[in-house]
Amino acid sequence: MSSFIKFLPSGPWRLPVIVLSGIFSGIVIFSVYVSEAFSYLGDKPQTCVNCHIMAPQYATWFHSSHREKTNCNDCHVPHNNVFSKYFFKAKDGLRHATVFTLRKEPQVIFIKEAGSRVVQNNCIRCHSELIKDSRLSVYSAELWRIRTERNCRDCHRETPHGRVNSLSSVPDARVPLPPSPVPEWLKAMINN
Amino acid sequence: MNINELLKKKSWLGWVLFLITVVAVFFLGLLASSIIERRSEAVFAYAPQITFPPNEPDNSKWGEIFPREYNSYLKTSDTSFRSRYNGSASIDMLETNPEMVILWAGYSFSKDYRQGRGHYYSVTDIRQTLRTGTPVNDVPSPAPNTCWTCKSSNVPGIIEEEGAAGFYRGTWEKRGKQIINPIGCADCHDSKTMNLRISRQALLEAYKAAGKDIGKVSFQEMRSLVCAQCHVEYYFNKNIVEGVDYLVFPWKNGLTAEDIERYYDELRFTDWTHALSRAPMLKAQHPDYEVYMTGTHASRGVSCADCHMPFISEGGQKFTDHHIQSPLNNVANSCQVCHREETERLVNDVYLRQDKIMESRKILEGLLVKCHFEAKAAWDKGAKEDQMKEILNDIRRAQWRWDFATAGHGNSFHSPLETLRLITSGISIASEARLKLSKVLVSLGYTGEVKVPDISEKAKAQRLIGLDIEKLTEEKSEFLKKVVPVWNKSEAN
Questions:
Q1: Structural domain tally of chain B?
Q2: Which residue in chain A is spatially nearest to B5 when comparing CA positions?
Q3: Surface of A (86-125) touching B: CB under 8 A
Q4: Do A21 and A55 fall into the same domain?
């Protein structure tokens, strides 16, 4: 605090500068609040529909069996260590935020190569018994290719989001889109 | 060097800093408003742009918000599908089964009984049937307003305003001007949430009477219960509200034909007295839900909507097909979701069951026709009340089982075992009755065979029981020409 005061000019300029930097900080805090920036640190699926274009992905997940055991992050960010998790999340999240802000989103969203690798590793993370079971082992010349070059999703194509996920594929789905940022008490005051 | 000292020396640097800050705040403001804009987009993107009152009867208004569901609903107007016994076209059931005219002698079903068309025609069809009579020039209809209950999406609104009893009160033509829209959206959906809802009091009251809470049923059960608002056995109770034919589902003792029969016996309820045998008869309506619940599909948790309104996909959107119809016309989306067989094989499996049951049903039908004529012969020869009492009760019970099996639209597929069980127990009771009848006839000195007249055609059978169908049809066409256009017009204004 004292260093901040040292930074301030002395004399008649002090008051306007305090007010002006307050306004600047206020807008920054408002942007953080209205974009629910802190929710991005958590794992709630509702966070991912802060951008409403993710509604089809949310709705299809919500109607799949994966709803019972997973949230978005369980599959879509790496879980080998905490640094890798948050680095990937920040990287992907910032790209998403940029695309959304610039309105560059495509009508049908496809997963990118990096995300696809993360998902594949997460399939294995939970379903490892499916590829480790010795009763299912087969030794053949094709084994290496079959086990390592294909993704689970190449066959399980409908898991869990279904096949078609255009922005308009679920017009009537009930998705927990972000509510109005205006607090209830303020609304009540304005209405009266 | 301290920045303050620097600024003192070069005053233009202050201006540069000021302008940079202005630009930064300006863009920060733009970012903030872009976030707000996209957030409020979310509110509009998933919210309907038009609103209507909770019981909006006009299906096309709902259709503006849900065009896919509405357009598929409109296909219930298609009458081109014909299965072996039923389908979406109007079939004159008395023509195909003239025995029915005899079985229902003295009751309005002997005048006219047709296979109903799709929901789209619910209002048109009830206006056209001879059973609702010809309410022209202040002549009342023989039917009460209760008969409208299951015919129109106008009903939930009127019931909310006037209460169930208020809605049922009076004869059928009284509400002719109010009831215009066919069965539709408001009958099954809450207008705010689009959740399924029960809009008909009778089902709510039946649940209450049986001590069950309809608020606690699952979504999957609701996908059948919305149908069970109408596709059930029911009767009109005149003792609940005075002067009102109050709609009641007789489910207090259970849902089987025997449970319901016991319920009616306890009430000493009869639908009509048979014109030939004078038996105190019961008429089964269409116990679709009751019979369905005894079948394999029901016990596996399949709902009505799973087969009659399967999910379909159009333009990358998955939704419920609102073209409510026979799954035999849509095997790919109904049966084949679970059964991996060829369409032809699946359809033949259904026909096989229907054929076998029809075979037994025809035996029972023949026995019942004989029962009615033999009982008439006994009366004609001077039989006494106490001689006949037990026999007439047997006829009532046997025909109740026949009707319960026959009146349900899909019984022989929904639950072939239960349907066949009803028919076989009906055959046994009817045979008993005939044995007793022959004893009565012998005691009256008659040992010959009672001849059943020629009832090979609907017209012959109707003439036999004294119905003047030409006159009734003529009167009906006058009603359709004179009264119905007035009813339609009043809604348009």
A1: 1
A2: A9
A3: 100-101
A4: no
Chain A residues 7-46 with CB within 8 Å of chain B: 9, 20, 23-24, 27-28, 30-31, 34-35
Q: Do B319 and A30 touch (CB under 8 A)?
A: no
The answer to whether B307 and B227 are in contact (CB under 8 A) is no
pLDDT digits (tens, 9 = 90+) for B381-417: 999 999 999 999 999 999 999 999 999 889 999 999 9
Q: Which of B355, B367, B357, B490 is nearest to B434 (CA)?
A: B367
A168: containing domain: 43-178
Tell me whether the omega of the peptide bond preceding residue A160 falls within 30 degrees of 0, making it cis: yes
Could you tell me if B49 lies within 8 Å of chain A, comparing CB atoms?
Answer: no
pTM metric for this prediction: 0.84
In a domain, B305, yes or no: yes
Q: Please tell me the distance from the alpha carbon of residue A131 to that of residue A136, in angstroms, as a whole number.
A: 8
Residue A28 shares a structural domain with residue A63: no
Same domain as A50, residue A24: no
Q: What is the pLDDT of residue B492?
A: 52
ipTM of predicted assembly, 2 dp: 0.70
Identity of the residue in A9, A31, A175 whose CB atom sits nearest the CB atom of B35: A31
Domain co-membership, A116 together with A142: yes
Inside any domain, residue A189: no
Q: What is the CATH number of the domain that holds B287?
A: 1.10.1130.10
The structure tokens 């010795």 sit at A134
How sure is the predictor about B493, in pLDDT bands with cuts at 50, 70 and 90?
A: very low
C-beta atoms of A55 and B34 within 8 A:
no
The answer on A109 and A29 residing in a single domain is no
Query: Is residue B167 within 8 Å of B159, Cβ to Cβ?
Result: yes
